[in-house]
Every structure is written in structure tokens, then in C-alpha cells.
Amino acid sequence: MFIIFLLIFLLFLALWLFFSFAVIYHLRRYSFPGWTAARFVVPLFFLLSFFFFCVAAYFLFTIPYAALTS
Fold first, then answer.
1. Torsion 45-49-52-54 (CA) sign
2. Please, what is the end-to-end C-alpha distance for the chain in angstroms?
3. What pLDDT is recorded for position 30?
4. Rounded to an integer, what distance in angstroms lies between the CA atom of residue 67 and that of residue 70?
């Protein structure tokens, strides 16, 4: 059961990485030349994403898998 949840989690993470890099690329590529908020938004996005990834990984590893299979 853990392997199934881990594979789903890794698939979600891969899809999230693809779309987040696409958003970051387009934010940097198509933002206005004088707009300085992109330098603030990108690190904030990565910090919040890392925080939420850690929370999701914590909850993934605290699921009582033995109780789910019995």
C-alpha cells in the first residue's frame, strides 16, 4: 500500500515540477522589463513550495499503512 501511495506522490511531484517550471519560465520571460516583483515572487514561490512539499512528505510517511491493509 505504501508503494502505491509513494508512486502517486512522485507522479504528482513530477507534474507539479513541470507546471511550476513552466510558470516560472513564463513569469521571467514575459514580465515587463521594469517590473521588479518577479525577483521577489520566484524565491517566495520556491520557499512556500518547499514548505508544502515537506508537509506533504511528513503526512505521507505518517499514514498508518498497517491499519489500511487489515
1. negative
2. 11
3. 86
4. 6
